[in-house]
Specification:
heterodimer; A: 156 residues; 5 helices; 5 strands; B: 715 residues; alpha/beta; globular
Chain lengths: 156, 715
């Protein structure tokens, strides 16, 4: 059912009329051309579609766009400050925390959601938190290294 | 797999012979194209070494009269911009860094100055499919030779300009330098005389490339050149491509394998707003303004569809089926007389399940028709093969089809084919607009080809000293990779037999090498036990001095095998294995612990050797990834199907490895600068499951003869 939906995307107000049941993922990719957020499974099992809603991690594939009315959404495109990468992005780059890179935006946003609330998360807490995101290149060792490296960069 | 597919696959695995330079009239077209795309400059060209037509591959001496297509390997613009072109694809294995390094090395320019263009069938050379670990041994040398040819041109040009012997000139940091006269010349100076003319040169035969001891860039950990785009989301994967006026497509899928469409009411979709449909035989697609609308339209169509289903076999009986349908029957052991007379003998059967590659990015394509020419952006490990598939499907000449492969989200041998590209192109043809098609995860699990299931039989006899006297090994259905035993055995025969596979199958990382090494290395442990010998000692006794022995020793030493073998901690077990495939060598030791629910892998210690290491950091990523990926089919991954329907087509029911599955992993990379570099993306994957299986036996006394490994409940 078509309806008007207003939310904030990467700090800017956004208003659109669309079917309220459309997945947020599709709206980001097909209407707003923010293709950094990826489709991976459509059922909240892989985390490739992870975005932040009011700072908390969210599966955008399972979220109807009408559910984000009045909320603030942050995607991978909204993470860097101009040319300056977010510490988590910088850490993934420095550690080479990617192979094909398709899971990377979701991994990075998932890590941001953790470190913004728990900057001193332990190694075990990081591993548990990151467990809900899949990387089929299975580059988990360097992904975990990157999150730990991001903790150091954030403090620097 | 049909015989034709199998032979194509084998052809893909063959070393690619490069046909050296040839210039013919058809280069003019390429030159014009390059002029348009890259501007005037120096082109170093190569003849395409690979033909897509089966049986027509150009081999040495087979040039005949027909000129081969020529492609640019390297373009140096007048502004000094250096573009390197290769027909390989980047899907996470790191070829983009490696080829950039290869060019930078031979040109003697900083890596930042190299722009690498990959896999565009209108522009890049046909370097064959990105498979069989061939990029390192074939394409790296090809790029190095092209770059070395350009460097030699620069030297020649400088020598002529300065009137000094070429031997006195060195190239460093993008400049030819003559020390004595303190003169320098950079690559753009090659165009000083005639700035608008396109120069062209072929790669001469036997152009010399730098020896390992002269390497400045190769051998170092150059990061992924487009890493910044990956962490910012700026990189456009195939599923991220958009075109003006593009529609989103979706295909109506059959409920099961081999189902035939009887009736369908297209109006169910056509009556929806802004939805178009196409039906062509059993192919039914819808095109809409959004993926959401396309999905709704297909749902509506599916309700009206009537199918005749094929009650194909189920996964529960797949191994019996494969054995029963073995072509020519199950082979007899040619050494049965020896076996009958031997003091000790053993025969066992092993099974390996169907698994799916499940790359993070499912198949995707954007197709666009313009003036009878088709352009498709898609993910495939075989760009020129997909071009041929498209040309055949639409009955047009190959030069009317352009396939562009952006760096994509994972392949693992699963994306050699072009079905998604063809589907998108059929819908774009019908809609007269560009169409975007991205398979769902369920489609990817169900309709992408699988790694073949395998049924394996092994029989061996031991002599009175407890050494292997005869060996007979049969793989039914999954193929011959790494099927030959690397052990010293006087009488050995290994056979790969085709069967009648119930599912569509194809390549996979390491393909059959995983199944063959699993059966062989588990059986080696069984034989060692029969001979009452330590698994390590038993293997070493059957290995000549050399690379396999070296990695096995290294892994065992790093793991402290003898000491840990003597340790009898309850519910803890260790196991090892080794193997070789695609000219690299791997060995691993594993520790597992048994729990009430099953067992857990605690530690994997791997030694790996693939010749001279080109990029240590990337190599480490590949080995880490291969080990963790291998844990999936070793421990859990298995496609279930019932009467032609895949019943676990989701990440919820098909559990691939996650962070929580990662054990302690220790990797020891053996560098061999004295040996040619070979590809490393596949082989480490073969040495995980057998070591775990052998460790499970050590801990529990239960022999494991099936992947995934299942352990009977603790008594």
């Amino acid at each position: 059912m078509e309806k008007k939906i207003t939310f904030t995307i990467n700090g800017a107000a956004q208003s659109m009329t669309t079917d309220g049941e459309r997945p947020l993922l599709d709206v980001l990719r097909e209407e707003l051309h923010l293709t950094g957020t990826k489709y991976g499974c459509g059922e909240g099992r892989c985390g490739a579609c992870t975005v932040l809603m009011d700072g908390k991690r969210l599966f955008s594939c399972l979220t109807n766009v009408e559910e984000v009315e009045g909320r603030s959404i942050r995607t991978i495109e909204g993470l860097a400050n101009g040319e300056k990468l977010h510490p988590v992005q910088q850490a993934f780059l420095e550690e080479g925390g990617f192979q094909c890179g398709y899971c990377t935006p979701g991994m990075i946003l998932n890590a941001v959601a953790l470190l913004e609330t728990k900057p001193n998360a332990s190694e075990a807490e990081i591993a548990a938190w990151m467990n809900r995101n899949l990387c089929r290149c299975c580059g988990y060792i360097k992904i975990l290294d990157a999150v730990q490296h991001a903790q150091k960069l954030s403090k620097a | 797999m049909s015989k034709q597919n199998l032979s194509k696959l084998l052809a893909d695995e063959e070393p690619i012979e490069r046909v050296e330079f040839q210039f013919e009239a058809n280069f003019q077209a390429t030159r014009r194209q390059f002029m348009q795309l890259l501007g005037a400059g120096l082109i170093i060209a190569v003849a395409d070494a690979v033909s897509d037509a089966p049986g027509q591959a150009q081999r040495g001496g087979g040039r005949g009269n027909a000129p081969l297509p020529l492609s640019a390997r390297l373009h140096i613009g007048q502004d000094g911009t250096i573009t390197v072109l290769a027909g390989k694809v980047e899907c996470g294995q790191g070829v983009r860094a490696e080829l950039t390094q290869a060019a930078a090395e031979e040109l003697r320019v900083p890596v930042e100055r190299i722009k690498l263009m990959l896999a565009d069938t209108d522009l890049t050379p046909n370097d064959g499919g990105t498979s069989g670990s061939r990029s390192t041994p074939s394409t790296v040398p090809a790029v190095r030779q092209g770059a070395a040819a350009a460097r030699n041109l620069l030297i020649e040009n400088a020598a002529k300009t300065w009137n000094v012997p070429a031997g006195e000139i060195t190239v460093q940091d993008g400049q030819a330098i003559h020390q004595a006269s303190k003169q320098a010349l950079n690559y753009s100076a090659l165009f000083a005389d005639d700035s608008t003319k396109i120069l062209s040169a072929a790669v001469p035969e036997n152009v010399s490339i730098f020896a390992v001891k002269e390497w400045q860039v190769l051998g170092s950990s150059v990061p992924r050149p487009n890493g910044h785009d990956l962490v910012t989301g700026a990189h456009h994967f195939p599923s991220d491509i958009t075109r003006p006026a593009m529609l989103y497509g979706k295909v109506l899928r059959a409920p099961s394998y081999g189902a035939k469409l009887d009736t369908l009411d297209l109006n169910a979709a056509q009556n929806l707003k802004d939805v178009q449909t196409v039906r062509d035989g059993d192919f039914v697609g819808v095109m809409a303004l959004s993926s959401f609308a396309a999905a709704k339209a297909v749902e509506a169509l599916a309700k009206t569809a009537q199918w005749t289903e094929n009650t194909a076999i189920s996964s529960a009986i797949v191994y019996d089926h494969l054995r029963q349908k073995a072509e020519g029957g199950m082979p007899q052991n040619p050494f049965s007389a020896d076996v009958n007379a031997a003091p000790n003998k053993l025969k066992q059967s092993y099974n390996v399940a169907y698994v799916q590659h499940a790359p993070m990015e499912p198949r995707a394509a954007v197709a666009e028709w313009q003036d009878g020419k088709l352009t498709v952006w898609t993910a495939s490990q075989n760009p020129f093969g997909v071009r041929s598939e498209l040309a055949r499907a639409f009955r047009i000449e190959e030069n009317r089809v352009r396939v562009i492969i952006p760096d994509f989200g994972g392949g693992f041998g699963g994306k050699h084919s072009g079905e998604c590209a063809i589907e998108a192109a059929r819908m774009a043809q019908a809609a007269k607009k560009p169409v975007h098609l991205r398979w769902t995860r369920q489609e990817e699990f169900t309709w992408a080809y699988f790694r073949p299931a395998a049924a394996l039989d092994v029989e061996a006899s031991l002599d009175e000293k407890g050494n292997i006297a005869t060996w007979h090994f049969v793989n039914v259905n999954s193929g011959g990779s790494a099927i030959e035993t690397p052990y010293k055995i006087a009488k050995a025969r290994s056979q790969s037999v085709n069967s009648a596979p119930p599912l569509r199958h194809g390549s996979y990382r390491g393909l059959a090498a995983t199944a063959n090494n699993f059966a062989r290395e588990c059986f080696m442990d069984e034989l060692a036990a029969l001979a009452n010998r330590d698994p390590l000692e038993f293997r070493l006794a059957h290995l000549e001095e050399g690379r396999l022995r070296d990695v096995l020793r290294e892994a065992a030493q790093q793991f402290d095998w003898p000491k840990r073998k003597a340790d009898k901690t309850p519910d803890t077990g260790i196991g090892l294995c080794c193997g070789t495939e695609k000219a690299s060598y791997v060995a691993a030791c594993v520790e597992i612990t048994r729990s009430e629910k099953g067992f857990a892998v605690r530690e994997i210690c791997m030694a790996y050797e693939c010749g001279a290491i080109l990029n240590p950091t990337n190599l480490l990523s590949q080995v880490q990834g291969a080990i963790v990926m291998a844990l999936g089919p070793a421990l859990r991954e298995e496609i279930h199907f019932e009467k032609g329907r895949v019943t676990n087509a989701s990440f919820g029911s098909y559990a691939v490895p996650r962070v929580a599955d990662v054990p302690l992993i220790k990797i020891h990379l053996l560098n061999r600068p004295d040996l040619p570099s070979v590809g490393a993306g596949e082989t480490p994957i073969i040495a995980v499951a057998p070591a775990i299986a052998n460790a499970v036996f050590d801990a529990t006394g239960q022999r494991i003869r099936e992947m995934p490994i299942r352990l009977a409940a603790k008594a």
